[in-house]
User: Fold Stimulator of interferon genes protein from Onychostoma macrolepis.
Amino acid sequence: MYGVTGEDGLVPRARSRLPVVCSVGLGLLMLLFAWLLDSDRISERAGMVAFCITVERFIHSMCLFAEEWLFHSRQRYHDRMNEIFQACFRGYVVFGMCAIFLMLMWGGVSFSGEQWSTITLMCAVYLVLKSLGILGPTSVEISEICEMKKMNVAHGLAWSFYTGYLKFVLPDLQNKVNQYSSTRGKMSSSRLHILLPVNAKVPNKPEEEDTNVIFHENLPELERDTAGVRNRSYKNSVYKITQDNETFSCVLEYATPLLTLYRMSHESSAGFGERERKQQVLLFYRTLSQILEDSLECRNCYRLILLNDEHTGEPHYLSREIIQHLKQQDGEIHMDPIQELPNEVHPVPEEGPIRNFNVAHHATYPEDPMSNDPTLMFSQPQSLRSEPVETTDYFNQPNAKR
Assistant:
């Protein structure tokens, strides 16, 4: 759920397929240019290039296969050769090598000595550059792969925060708020407001960041058996926020997984710098938003408040952001789904003398206005050979022209 401070301009969006489109377009233009330069030998040269690329990938996959088979077959694959093969060889490489084998054996295709020398040289250069990491994936490609495969630290933390805490706390939050409101007074919002600072600096008490945010009391505890711990308790705290002689109250807390990101960035063995930490925080916010929006039991029970680290020097930035979110919620309208009775029958309006008879019948025997029970209606029997009767207003007027 996006807030009111322009998170769309701060949170990165998912990457599009623009690089693929550009690559395909540029590749077609280059093929056209090569055809214009040498149209007679374009097919022969294209076949040799495809042959070289396939052989290069196959040799590199064989090197990967040797490592996995000799040193990791038991621990990683439980001696299953098919899994090792699938992990090292991509489908197009296997298909290309089969096509090359058939082409050389039965296709009658042969290369000259100079061409074989060129193919060998290209394979050698490829393997050297690949080993040195020059042809390896860029940081953008690695980031895209991790986001598509859900392999980032932020993905795991977001799912852990949802499945281990929010999934059972948020559905029960409304009941606890109602218990609190019946004895302590109505709160400004019944949602759980989750604070997510971009710099991942999570204080123990919000009062340390803003003196206008004051702890009031805790809501009734939720107890449940979790991971072998009997009657583990989960608490939510109510805070009072003041601004310009106005006081608001809401359930407030920081996203605790951000502590993990912050501490990881201060451990040298984690290889997690400040730049990576900020990216993971924003990705955590985006992932958690998507998870909660897709959860029917948690929808409209929370509010994610992203705190920009550019305003950390302002003494009352936190209270201003919280109040801004609270005021925005006052204008929101949530439509409950309309529930219809099962097998509900909607009557069809009748026309002609049958309708006139029913109107007269209702006038003689009116229904009880307080009764909602369905009644069985009978129409006056009509002859099957009766003439049709015009019932429009024009023809029913006394002075209408016939």
